[in-house]
Amino acid sequence: MVATLTEPKVYRIGNLEIGGDRGERPTLLLPSMFHAKDKILSSRRQGVFDREKAAAYLARMEELSQATGVLAMVAMVSNWEDEFRRYVEFYREHTQLPFACDVWMVKRRLACAKVVADLGLQDVFLYNSITPWDAKDVPLADQVKELRDLGIRHVMLQAFDEADTTPAGRLKSLDVLLEEVNKANFASILVDSSCMSLPSLPYSLAANHMIKEGYGFPCGQATSNGSYMWRKELAERFGPEAFPAVDAAVESLSVFWDSDFVFCGPVVGIGRVMMAAVVGDVMAAVRRYQEKGVLPAPGHPLERMFPDFYRQLVQPAV
Hints:
alpha/beta; about 15% strand; TIM Barrel; eight-stranded parallel barrel; 12 helices; globular
């Protein structure tokens, strides 16, 4: 890892800015659509889904984002190239927000990138993600070259070492990926520090802090992995109120503690998660102001949700 502190990077993906100093910009939420057991799906193979309900989800997400200042874009799950094309074309009919893929298998993920290139949407697409285990199917150098040749501009890197699951292991994994990724001159590099369970979330958050200091990349994780993996047990032991409380808590804490973005689970929960993110973003911005005397970027949740408090910071009482 780089020994000296690095200026935090700010990237623009479509109409969204992400990164910078913690508390400077609002967090980016990445809810999923078309995932396994998504109730709007009728046929994954044919890409058939409830368009009216999907459009309502997108409208709600965009409405909340505009009202609160928290950023959002959808990560779409897909298994086939033609399926992904249908989702992307639908998405672009209903919103101008950027989007990501959320695809585990590298060959299927590259097929999504080909769709994006064919549609000329490279500027608004986040490739999620380049992982350490992709090399089992496609050599890392080949994947990077194909993305570069397709004109993909924004990529996510998955930092995780199965032999060393500590924050230091995540940094070692990132170094290996960067040996090839740095050759491609992507416009944006984001790092997913791999949340695998709720109690392991602090490992991801600590890695975020270390990566941001050493490399400057915007960092985050799939915080929802921690809460959703615990959902069934929570319901059985503590009733239906337990999961929403736990999910909101972990989302808010991860937003407050060194996360520039959060994969936050199915879009149906965007209302709960957006409000949780508001709390984390507001607290992070005020902490930064208290420590550095610097206000957050315009349109931040602190300004939109607590305008009176914000004005007091801008013009302190004499």
